[in-house]
């Protein structure tokens, strides 16, 4: 009887999700694969021409796609490093015995609650007004100017804002990880005379590996897929200097009206993200230490 | 146990009921539409500024004729994508707007041929949207752009050619006033202004085609060479337009911080929201001594040919009513604030910018909008990134021309 009931609950909660997931993810994904073999401008009444793998071949010679691939990788590497470093630092800070740790925890998490689009528009103002003002007041106008209109700096601006958004969220995961570390191990190391730095490297970090696995996975995949902040902060500009993968695909499909080619890009994009994140999870999982 | 079962049952049933209710609701609607014998039409269009007024007009139309008209909303930014999505999912509107021939070509299979309709005879000469021999769109109204200037600060004679334009910019620069301002959005940054070297050619549209075919390049065309000099002068003497939004551009102008902005008569709406105590006017952009405003049609009404006959007829009736009835005319001129492109409308009182455009149109002192025959999406996709590069990097006039040619060829 009990078992049967469990099954009911299972079905109740799983089936609706499965239906939604199938209709909005699986089916469109399969249709997308189908479209990637066609040359089509996305207008239903216009002809679809079967071109086989031509779209994928064409990708190899698409300079703008390669450029955006490179930018995406650069963006991802930079933001994964900064988000995790800052997130971990935040977590250590708010779990230490400082006053107002709880308030700090809330404040640091807050940016994650703001939608990416709004965040981008807000930071546009910050870069335009605050940064230029800071530059004028301090005289450091080599560092403080509107980053978003400089092709070299706009990407860093994007990393900066994305870090600001994500670090608090990653902090929460690290906090959970830190709290899972048994106190007796720490205490034992203190008695053995380990310095705080040694404790961090030899004990805390290895025991944090499961949290690291999750955090890296989350930051990697969301940095790769970023679109909202990208759109509202820079719109891919200036001069395509911040046109990341997702935006490049959108522009190809809706901007240039190359539906098939855009879908092909999306498929390649999916494979790359899947390959990288799976590899990362595989590697970091192996380094996790059993207690 | 029974209690639990009830909850489970209720939880499962609730969404089911909802789904059923939704389905039956849908059925009711379509049946209701058929029974009343009055056809319902839907309108989807890209000009956000007139959505409220259009809805009001639709309501009056319903009152007069009993035909229900639904105006669908959009934010305007990605109108064409939204239209495409609606058409693809077979929820296309009966009437939609098209900006230009390039859009019309892409949607050719959805566009109804208006040539035989009576009301198209009122369209001002050369202002109809045509696809080959067919008339496929009724213009919203004519629009014109040029340099909107502050009459207290600028004397038209001082910006009549390249030399005077540059020395005026330099003078303003020394005084700490922004002499001339573009804005960061695609059309306000490069779309409209890049129109000039094309449209002062003898055959502007033909020249665009020659550019597309690679038969001519910007680098070897004198109009473009001077255009490049203009752009360099603007870049050197004014703050970068890359951090200037449309609102800010117009606001700064109204506040007297900017002497001239490159805008169209459509800006008078937003301009009137600011308080300013000087007179304004619109001047031609003086490329190669050009003394004519760029006037064209920004938007056209088109009918969805994939709808059934009844709905197409109803859509035709609506456009006919709008182009010939008094109420329709009142809305076009007074409520939408358009400069009419129909010869049977009396323009009445206009704001100074629209008046300038109408005067130019009536006297024939206009140059066309070459940007309406540019390759599809070239302005946001190719020219804007190029212009952003130009304004953020060191670029000479020669490099500007090379970059322009490259951007143009990249769009092919």
UniProtKB/TrEMBL annotation, chain A:
Keywords: Cell membrane, Membrane, Transmembrane, Transmembrane helix, Transport. GO terms for biological process: transmembrane transport. Residues 69-280 form the ABC transmembrane type-1 domain. The keyword Mitochondrion does not apply. Coiled coil: none annotated. It is a multi-pass membrane protein. The chain crosses the membrane at residues 9-35, 69-95, 107-133, 153-179, 200-224, 266-283. Gene3D superfamilies: MetI-like. InterPro entries: ABC_transporter_permease, MetI-like, MetI-like_sf. PROSITE patterns: ABC_TM1. GO terms for cellular component: plasma membrane. Belongs to the binding-protein-dependent transport system permease family. It comes from the Bacteria. This is ABC transporter permease. It is found in: Cell membrane.
From TrEMBL, chain B:
GO terms for cellular component: ATP-binding cassette (ABC) transporter complex, substrate-binding subunit-containing. It comes from the Bacteria. PROSITE patterns: PROKAR_LIPOPROTEIN. InterPro entries: SBP. Keywords: Signal, Transport. GO terms for molecular function: maltose binding. Residues 1-21 form the signal peptide. Pfam families: SBP_bac_8. One of its GO terms (biological process) is maltodextrin transmembrane transport. The keyword Signal applies. Belongs to the bacterial solute-binding protein 1 family. This is ABC transporter substrate-binding protein. The lineage of its organism: Bacteria, Bacillati, Bacillota, Bacilli, Bacillales.
């Amino acid at each position: 009887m009990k078992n049967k009931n469990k099954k009911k609950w299972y079905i109740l909660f799983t089936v609706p999700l499965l239906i939604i997931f199938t209709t909005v993810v699986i089916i469109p994904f399969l249709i997308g694969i189908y479209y990637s073999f066609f040359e089509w401008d996305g207008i239903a009444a216009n002809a679809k021409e079967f071109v086989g793998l031509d779209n994928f071949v064409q990708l190899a010679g698409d300079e703008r796609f390669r450029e955006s691939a490179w930018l995406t990788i650069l963006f991802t590497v930079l933001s994964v490093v900064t988000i995790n470093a800052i997130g971990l630092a935040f977590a250590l800070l708010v779990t230490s015995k400082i006053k107002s740790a709880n308030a700090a925890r809330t404040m640091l998490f807050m940016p994650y609650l703001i939608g990416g689009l709004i965040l981008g528009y807000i930071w546009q103002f910050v870069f335009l007004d605050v940064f230029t003002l800071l530059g004028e007041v301090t005289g450091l106008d080599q560092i403080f100017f509107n980053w978003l209109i400089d092709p070299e700096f706009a990407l860093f601006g994007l990393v900066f804002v994305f870090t600001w958004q994500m670090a608090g969220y990653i902090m929460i995961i690290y906090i959970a990880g830190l709290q899972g570390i048994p106190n007796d191990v720490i205490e034992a190391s203190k008695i053995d005379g380990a310095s705080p730095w040694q404790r961090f490297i030899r004990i805390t970090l290895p025991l944090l590996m499961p949290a690291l696995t999750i955090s890296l996975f989350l930051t990697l995949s969301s940095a790769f897929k970023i679109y909202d902040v990208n759109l509202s902060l820079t719109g891919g500009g200036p001069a395509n200097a911040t046109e990341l993968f997702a935006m490049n695909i959108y522009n190809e499909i809706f901007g240039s009206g190359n539906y098939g080619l855009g879908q092909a890009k999306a498929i390649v994009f999916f494979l790359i993200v899947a390959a990288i994140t799976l590899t990362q999870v595989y590697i970091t999982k192996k380094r996790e230490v059993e207690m | 146990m029974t209690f639990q079962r009830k909850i489970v049952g209720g939880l499962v049933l609730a969404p089911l009921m909802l789904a059923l209710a939704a389905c039956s609701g849908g059925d009711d609607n379509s049946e209701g539409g058929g029974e009343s014998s009055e056809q319902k039409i839907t309108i989807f269009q890209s000009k956000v500024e007139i959505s409220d007024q259009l809805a009001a007009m639709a309501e009056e139309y319903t009152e007069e004729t009993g035909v229900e008209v639904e105006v669908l909303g959009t934010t305007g930014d990605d109108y064409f994508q939204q239209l495409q999505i609606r058409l693809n999912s077979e929820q296309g509107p009966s009437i939609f707007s098209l900006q230009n021939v390039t859009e019309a070509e892409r949607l050719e299979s959805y566009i109804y041929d208006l040539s035989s309709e009576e009301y198209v005879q009122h369209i001002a000469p050369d202002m109809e949207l045509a696809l080959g021999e067919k008339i496929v769109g009724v213009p919203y109204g004519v629009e014109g752009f040029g340099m909107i200037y502050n009459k207290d600060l600028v004397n038209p004679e001082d910006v009549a050619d390249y030399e005077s334009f540059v020395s005026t910019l330099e003078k303003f620069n020394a005084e700490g006033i922004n002499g001339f301002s573009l804005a960061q959005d695609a059309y306000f940054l490069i779309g409209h202004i890049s129109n000039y070297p094309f449209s002062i050619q003898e055959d502007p549209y033909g020249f665009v085609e020659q550019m597309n075919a690679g038969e001519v390049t910007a680098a070897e065309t004198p109009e473009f060479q001077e255009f490049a000099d203009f752009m360099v002068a603007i870049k050197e003497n004014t703050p970068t337009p890359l951090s200037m939004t449309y609102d800010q551009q117009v606001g700064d102008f109204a506040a007297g911080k900017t002497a001239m902005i490159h805008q169209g008569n459509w800006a008078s709406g937003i301009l009137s929201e600011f308080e300013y105590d000087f007179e304004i006017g619109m001047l031609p952009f003086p490329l190669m001594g050009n003394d004519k405003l760029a006037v064209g049609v920004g938007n056209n009404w088109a009918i969805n040919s994939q709808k059934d006959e009844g709905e197409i007829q109803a859509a035709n009736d609506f456009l006919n009513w709008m182009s010939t009835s008094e109420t329709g005319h009142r809305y076009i001129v007074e409520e939408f604030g358009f400069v009419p492109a129909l010869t049977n409308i009396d323009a009445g009182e206009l704001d100074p910018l629209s008046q300038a455009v109408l005067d130019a149109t009536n006297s024939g002192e206009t140059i066309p909008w070459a940007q309406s025959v540019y390759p599809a999406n070239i302005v946001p996709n190719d020219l804007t990134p190029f212009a952003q590069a130009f304004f953020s990097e060191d670029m000479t006039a020669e490099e500007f021309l090379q970059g322009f040619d490259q951007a143009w060829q990249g769009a092919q």
